[in-house]
Amino acid sequence: MTVRIEENRSHPRLRDLLAAYHLVNQAEKGTAVETVAELPAVYRGEAEDPAAAFAADTVLLVTAPGGDAPSGCVVLKASREGRAPEIKRLWVAPEARRKGLAKALMTEALHRAAAAGAPAVRLTVWAWRAEPLALYRGLGFATVDSWDERPDLLCLEKPLDVIEKLTPEAVRTHAPAGLAELLMDAVDGGASVGFLAPLETARAAAWWSGVAEEAAAGVRDVWAAHAPDGSLSGVVTLVRTGTDNGRHRGEIARLLVRGTARGRGLGRRLLATAEAHATATGLRLLVLDTQTDSPAERLYRGAGWTAAGTIPDFAADPAGTLRATTLYYKRLG
Description:
single chain, alpha+beta, Aminopeptidase, seven-stranded mixed β-sheet, elongated
C-alpha cells in the first residue's frame, strides 16, 4: 500500500494540523501559548481559515496507508516577485511519524514546483530541528545566504533539474557522453536494462545513436533531465507501437536516473512527463517491464501502474544472473 497525497486547502483536517504545527513551533521558540486564539495574528489566521490564508498557494495533505484521514501537510508558497517558491508548514502528526510521510510530502511539493517551471525551491528551518534539517539535506537542499535575519533560522535552497524533450539531433549530440554515461551508470548499479557489465562507452553511445534514428522516424520520444550544472541526471523514452492495431499503445523504456541524483523524485517526474505527453498525443494505454523486486517497482506502483504478471528467468542482470521480470500497464485518459 502507498501513501495518498491530495491537494485541498479546504480540508477540515487541515485546521487541526496547522494548529498543532504552530503550537509546537511557538513552544520550541520559547513563546508557548495554550490555544490557537493566543497565536500571533498571522499564524492564528492560517489555523482558523487556511483556505483564505493560502488562497494563492498549493496545500498538500498526506494520508498514511490504511488511514482514513490526513495526518500531515505541507504548503508550497507561490513564487512572488521573481523569487523561488517556498516550502512552508511541513507537519506530520506525532503518531504518524517514521512512515515516510514527510518525505512523500516534500517529494510531491518538489514535483509540483518543477512541473511549474521553477528553477529552484527554498525553505527555512530552525537550526535546532535536527530531523527536518536532515530530511531537507537528504533531498538536496543546501544552506544559502539568509533572506530572514531571525537568529537560529537557516535558509536553504534546492536547484531543480530541468526536463526537456530532446530532438533527434540533441540525442545524437548527447549520445557519446551524457546519455552513454547514464546507461553505463545504470548497468554499473545493477539495473537490468538490456546490457551485461561492463558496458563500454562506445557500445552505450552506439545504442543511443540508434535511438536518435528512431526519434527522427517518429518511433521514439526522448526526455532528459538537466542538473543545475548542465550535466544529464536522468532520461526516459516512450516507444510507439508500429502496428495498425496497436497505435493506441506505447511503451515506457529506459527510465534511468543517475545514482547521485536518486531519492529526490526525479524518476517520478520523468515518468510523469512521458505519461502526460502520451495522453496529450492520443495514447490510451502504456506498458513496461522491469526486474521483479527491483526499486523501480515501488516507483511504478506508486505512480498508479498495475502489475499484469511475472515471467521467471526473463532476462539476465548485468552480472549475468537470470532474473524474473514483472509486466506493468497503465490506462490513460
